[in-house]
Amino acid sequence: MLLQPLAEPAADRAGVRLLLLRDDLTHPELPGNKWRKLKYNLAEAQRLGHHTLLTFGGAFSNHLAAVAAAGRLTGLRTIGVVRGEELGLLPFNPTLGQARADGMELHFLDRATYRRKHEPAVLGQLLQTLGPAYVLPEGGSNTLALPGCAELVTELKALTEFDYLCVACGTGGTLAGFLTGLAGHHEAAGFAALKGADFLRHDINQLTQQATGHTYTNWTLQTGYHGGGYAKLSAELMQFIREFRERHGVLLDPIYTSKMLVGVLDLLAQGYFRRGSTVVAVHTGGLQAWGGFQERHELGL
Q1: 141 included as an active-site residue
Q2: What domains appear along the chain, each with residue ranges and CATH number?
Q3: Which of 168, 179, 231, 288 is the most exposed place for a label (fewest CB within 10 A)?
Q4: Tens digits of per-residue pLDDT, 182-216?
């Protein structure tokens, strides 16, 4: 685990020590929070005797990519249920292409049916059609995802003292895991990567309650840094990513960590973090998404 100091004028003016936790470097094929979320789910699937993982995601899903890689590395069959009609997604972008190359069987659902994917009738039909499987939710966020994410807090505490832990949020499982690891100590801030993410507060509280019997109050959800919506890459965000790489030699992903760091720097400028405190922002990986974004936007990164 690598902690990289970030020399940022906003942090200097705020009197805050800003660190970037490079969880994107933990595994060459399963970096960051995706491996942490999968770790105990894979163990449970094997304990239950399953040979197949079935999960859900959009066309650029880091989670689909991670499950496909995990299946190849562990010898488990993988099925990805993809949001959208197959014809509308052809030719496959690099995310879906690599998932298929890793052995994932892709099954496509129209968007209306996809929204109902967790209803018993829809899920039952999928399992009847595709065969028995250990089902992972979209984004991998369930109670078994939390202990793997909580381990990051333990590892971080062994490296440094800190006051705030910041992370991007898609489905909320990573932040929920961090909260169980923090156990009410220190403070955490989640940065929603999608519009209209107020529902995540309920989802995160529900996950921690189910996993530990507790809900926590030492956290906030920042919903103003989605950059236009999930997987939206504005010219301003692209410029931020380029300039951040020039300053720190770190490539951020276009969906999650880049938006979180925009938010962290803005909150620093607003005086949100206590003077004299240490803020740790987590780079959760997700760099595979650049394949599709390069293709769509000709970014030249």
Answers
A1: no
A2: 3-29+142-297 (3.40.50.1100), 51-132 (3.40.50.1100)
A3: 231
A4: 999 999 999 999 999 999 999 999 999 999 999 99
